[in-house]
Amino acid sequence: MKYEQFEEAIKNADGDRKKYLKTMEAFTCMNFDFRPEYRALFEKAADIDEFDDMLFEDKENYKTTAAWAHTAIHRVEDPITLLEPTLVKEIEPPEDNVIVLKRGVDDMYDLHIEMPKKQPITKMYVFEDGEWNREFGILKITLQGSYKFEGETLSGFHDVIYAGDAVVFEHWKMDSHGRRVKAQFYAPDGYEERL
What's the whole-number average pLDDT of the chain? Predict the structure, then answer.
């Protein structure tokens, strides 16, 4: 498949299909050509639908990319289930969707994090760096230290992320200099409209 074929597919599409393809183009192309990391997939594909299928199936290489998230969101009701957390736990919905992290025996050290009230938080996930896709949630805060949530002890650096009916803790992997190995940069609002 050539870039011109992709452009033609967008031109001939309408409605939601056109919107989907234009977003995929933004994630996979630049300067009227394919981005290097997607070129091999495009060149193997006969058309955009085959590219889409190949991208989705190659989770190992693309699971943290915006393009993979884009196709997953349109294929699966809860795309987080496609990923590999180190912990999944059903939880009681917190009052007013405010999660409370315990940081000691005294309540005065507790940390209260308000989540959007679009739907109640009923699940907790923990992911290691490189296993979470930032497009599936909204970063609320980054924490360092040791704290407890729903009976689980979390230590080190964690991003705390709102993801629809779930709260996600992404554990940072640090190098020998104390720097994060695989940082992900969040858009200001993430996919808040979808969530």
Answer: 89
Q: How many CA atoms lie within 13 A of 90 on its CB side?
A: 0
Chain mean position to CA 2 = 29
* Coil/strand/helix, residue 37: helix
Q: Indicate whether 194 pLDDT > 70.
A: no
Predicted pLDDT of residue 183: 57
> What are the structure tokens assigned to 97, written together?
């969707």
In the beta sheet, which residues pair with residue 124? 89, 167
145 φ/ψ angles, rounded to the nearest 5 degrees? 130, -160
User: How many whole angstroms separate alpha carbon 170 and alpha carbon 157?
Assistant: 8
Question: What distance in Å separates the CA atoms of residue 22 and residue 102, rounded to the nearest whole number?
Answer: 44
Distances (CA, A) of 139 to 57, 164, 183: 27, 12, 13
Contact criterion met (CB below 8 Å) for 167 and 121: yes
Taking the C-alpha atoms of residue 141 and residue 138, their distance in angstroms, rounded to an integer, is: 9
CA distance 75 to 95: 32
In the predicted structure, residue 195 carries a pLDDT above the cut 50: no
Q: How confident is the model at residue 184 (pLDDT cuts 50, 70, 90)?
A: low
